[in-house]
Amino acid sequence: MKTDASVHLQSFAKINLGLEILGRRPRDGYHLLRTVFQTIDLCDDIRVTPQKERICSVEGDWPGVKWGGDNTISRAFRVLDREYGLPHGFHVRVKKRIPPGSGLGGGSGNAAVCLLHFAASCSLDAGMPALAQVAAVVGADVPFFLAGGTVLAEGIGEQMTLLEDVRVPSLVVALPAVEVSTARVYRGFGLTSRQGESKIEAFLRTGQLTGLENDLEAVTFGYYPEVRTAKEAISTAGCGFVAMSGSGGAVFGIPDPGPSLERYLRGVRLVRSRFVTRKEYQERIGAWPSGKAPVFGAGIRRFESSRPSLTRSGRSE
Questions:
Q1: Is the per-residue pLDDT at 289 higher than 80?
Q2: 241-244 and 7-24: which strand pairing?
Q3: What mean pLDDT comes out for the span 20-47?
Q4: CATH number of the 171-273 domain
Q5: What is the pLDDT, as a whole number, of residue 292?
Q6: What residues are labeled active site?
Q7: Mean predicted confidence (pLDDT) in 222-228
Q8: Looking at the domain 7-164+276-304, which fold is it?
Q9: Which one of 34, 252, 310, 314 has the minimum C-beta count within 10 Å?
């Protein structure tokens, strides 16, 4: 082991093209959902260096994040070590571009790409299904970031179906200056019976983004009016499809309306981006020393993360 052999990883953001809350799981009260995840070209930079001591030390540049305490990366290391027994530890440094509490999955993505790198660099005999089991313990969104691209997630997010990539050349993401509490939004959501066909099922049949909705928007808008303002501004600017990602506060619009958007959204951080396909995602995250992604096979279409012997953590970003 070369302790100076540091590796650069990229950890991409996701958006939720649609999100439907279907009920609650009786045994633990987790919300059951149906959502379509999509990776986008906004990423954190991560530098990973092996170390002899069997711990994972994490530092980063975003204030307010518990880098030295319990975070998604250190949890990924601990769970993987508990299941497989890692021969050494790692030091991880994160340069953040994806704001915490934005609904873009920054912490979940960080955990997933580090998990993949830990497994590969330690030559673990663990493929996609096994790593998905570990990822689900770290957080409900983490298994998605093992695959990237366009994915249908069901259950509490652990039942994944890999979809054909949706290709969008441009979108804009508005990031209001709020850090949304996912737990608060889910607590505030009141279940109602769904009328008519699922908008996500219609999307799966037609491939049309327009019509997709996020069931959590009304709750988030009530707690964080800045998010509602951002959505209204993007809609006014002329985007054909506008939605909130996850539980907020990021709002995205497709296609990017261009410079005119600045007129409607003053003082809000704007990010121009595009969709990242599954193949591009797997090539760019840099998690494999060989440069290839051996855990992904063309035949893998659906996988679940549901190992009873592991104790799930709560929903992450």
A1: no
A2: unpaired
A3: 93
A4: 3.30.70.890
A5: 56
A6: 14, 141
A7: 97
A8: Ribosomal Protein S5; domain 2 (3.30.230)
A9: 314
How many Cα atoms are found within 13 Å in the side-chain-facing hemisphere of 141?
28
Q: What is the C-alpha to C-alpha distance for residues 11 and 58, in angstroms, rounded to an integer?
A: 15
| Domain ranges, ordered by start, for the chain | 7-164+276-304, 171-273
Edge-to-edge strands of the sheet including 269-273?
Answer: 241-244, 251-254, 171-175, 269-273
Check if the beta carbon of residue 12 is closer than 8 Å to that of residue 148: yes
pLDDT tens per residue, range 34-81: 999 999 999 999 999 999 999 999 999 998 888 887 899 999 999 999
- Please give the structure tokens belonging to residue 38: 């999509």
Q: In terms of Cα–Cα distance, which of 19, 5, 4, 11 is closest to 315?
A: 19
Sequence-separated (6 or more) residues with CB below 8 Å from residue 223: 180, 181, 184, 185, 188
β-pairing, 159-162 vs 241-244, is: unpaired
Distance of CA 249 to the CA centre of its chain: 14
Quick: pLDDT tens for 137-170.
999 899 999 999 999 999 888 889 999 999 998 9
